[in-house]
Amino acid sequence: MPDPSQWWCSAVVYQIYPRSFADSDGDGIGDLGGIAERLDYLQQLGVDVLWLSPIYPSPHDDNGYDISDYRDVDPAFGTLEQFDQLLRDVHARGMKLVMDVVVNHTSDEHPWFVESRSSRDNPKRDWYWWRDEPNNWTSEFSGPAWELDDKTGQYYLHLFTRKQPDLNWENPEVREAVYEMMRWLDRGVDGFRMDVINFISKPADLHDDATDTRGPIGRDAYICGPRIHEFLHEMHEQVFAGRDGLLTVGEMPGVTVEEAQLFTDPARGEVDMVFQFEHFNIDQRKNKWDWFPLHLPDLKHSLGRWQEGLAETGWNALYWNNHDTPRSVSHWGDDGEHRVAAAKLLGTVLHLHRGTPYVYQGEELGMTNVPFESIEDFRDIESLSHYAEATAAGQEPEEVLRGLRWMSRDNARTPVQWDASEHAGFTTGEPWIPVNANHTEINAEAGLADPDSVFHHYRKLIAFRHEEPAVAEGDFTMLLPDGERVYAFTRRHGDTELLVIANFSADAVTPDADREWAGAEVVIGDPGDSLALGPWEARVYRRSR
Ligand code: GLC
Fold it and tell me: Given the CA of residue 141, which atom of ligand 1 is nearest to it?
């Protein structure tokens, strides 16, 4: 276990997707000026760290996760000077700022790739993966993972879109260039979220993937590939070692508990925590578009395993949603009659687990999925590619749309709803993606004004973590693992014990837990004189042993 005095054990991180957060100049795209204007709001919420999704120059094929210059700010978002000022403003408020680095791939417009593709004998040719014949891997975003480059007659590897060629980490020059860039980025920033960082080590022979696992073909070969721990340790030594106060979190699709233990063991010097996806995939069949209703014991089983697996060594990053997921209150809660209760419940359950919680912009308002009408309403490259591929293969457009409405990343990417006015106070111009019509009811202004709002509930959860050491440091015991409606667990630290009970259903229930708790102090949620819970109600009790 990390030293519990590590500052990030008791911190809460807030993710900003700049394009959709707040627009200060009326061009319909969120920007740094918009973030600066909302710092008071974030401070009021009480979060400790802001993580900015990429703000670097980019052709925006994948909304900035295709970087063409790591050393500047995209003019759509602002300038480097504005960024430096934002960093100072964030620090002045006692918060920290973490950047997103995307180094599994660059944009095809990055000068490194422009050089690499210019000729077979260019010195940067080997900075990317070029082959005469593709292997059988498929892209994470539909279709093959290889693109033929006419000029030099070879294929290059792209695990994401064809505009996101994969860097060849086997080449030491690539690694040094990446570390050098990250050192430059450390111009006062407090750490990094590292995009698909467990994809960077490919087997040097790029062999075909012979397995038939769910998801894109090739994953078995490149997820946590042969040199991944070596590369992350090297990065740690080259970039992070000796600097205090940083937070590093690796995004790691497909990572196992056992691997995560290694990645987050402080003694190994790799990363502080990882985003794992196991709990996120438990209601899916062959791919993310094909889901079934949540079976609560599966969720408990999964998260419980991760709590246990990282109890002694390592640390969990906790999240329900981010810029790649649907909205949690729609996905696993209730976005109709019980929206407010369900959003509060999800917050309570997540924030009381052991680990560092991440709040995705708008989650603290209980923002919901979007009733997209037609494919024209979508912007995300993943959704558009899936629609094109699935309909070409004969699937009914309406059926494909049903999957998109449920899972599309655009659900998370509609503008933050600041108020009930036109475009939700996000922009004075035309937003790059339509605002959810429910902003007239669900918005920050309304949340701030109502003491019973989801916003104020999140504020209390965050404050509670700061005040009560059992939240950050306590051990974790899952109760009622097979219960289909109640999620319950205890946390223990010294002589303090917390009980969390949550009703994931619209029916009233009484959890089968130790009745003595009924007399204990209720620290989160509405007190009741028994353990009975109303629809989507959650409660946290505290007692001394
Ligand atoms: C990560 C990002 C996602 C992006 C992909 C490729 O999964 O979170 O938004 O599309 O990597 O960079």
Answer: 10
CB within 8 Å of 82: residues ≥ 6 apart: 32, 33, 36, 73
Ligand 1 centre distance from Cα of residue 196 (Å):
7
Q: Which of 323, 324, 382 to mutate to test the pocket of ligand 1 (most atoms within 8 A of CB)?
A: 324
The answer, yes or no, to whether any atom of ligand 1 lies below 6 A from the CB of 195, is yes
Residue tagged 């394009």 (tokens) = 19
Q: What is the pLDDT of residues 73-118, one digit of tens each?
A: 999 999 999 999 999 999 999 999 999 999 999 999 999 999 999 9
Residue 2 has pLDDT above 70, yes or no: no
Amino acid (1-letter code) at residue 387: Y
> Measured on CA atoms in the order 96, 102, 108, 114, is the torsion positive or negative?
positive
Paired tokens of 288? 């993310």
- Residues 74, 108, 147, 251: which is the catalytic one? 251
464: nearest Cα among 523, 518, 522: 523
Residue (of 325, 333, 324, 327) closest to 294 by Cα position: 333
Q: Is 217 in the pocket of ligand 1 (CB under 6 A)?
A: no
User: What percent of the chain lies above the pLDDT cut of 70?
Assistant: 99
Ligand 1 centroid, distance to 355 Cα (angstroms)? 23
160 within ligand 1 shell (Cβ under 6 A): yes
Burial of 7 (0-12, 13-18, 19+ CB in 10 A): middle
Q: What is the pTM of this model?
A: 0.97
Q: Return the amino acid letter for 493.
A: H
Model pLDDT for residues 60-74, shown as the tens digit of each residue: 999 999 999 999 999
Asked if residue 401 has pLDDT above 90, the reply is: yes
- Residue 105 CA: nearest ligand 1 atom is 12
pLDDT band at 349 (very low <50, low <70, confident <90, very high): very high
On whether the CB atoms of residues 260 and 309 are closer than 8 A, the answer is yes
Instruction: Give catalytic status of residue 195 as yes or no.
Output: yes
Task: Report the alpha-carbon distance of residue 521 to residue 524 in Å, rounded.
Answer: 9
Residue 545 pLDDT class (50, 70, 90 cuts)? confident
pLDDT at 317: 98
Residue nearest to atom 9 of ligand 1 (CA): 324
Checking if the pLDDT of 214 tops 70, the result is no
> What is the C-alpha separation between 501 and 518, in angstroms, rounded?
11
Distance CA 145, CA 458 (A): 41
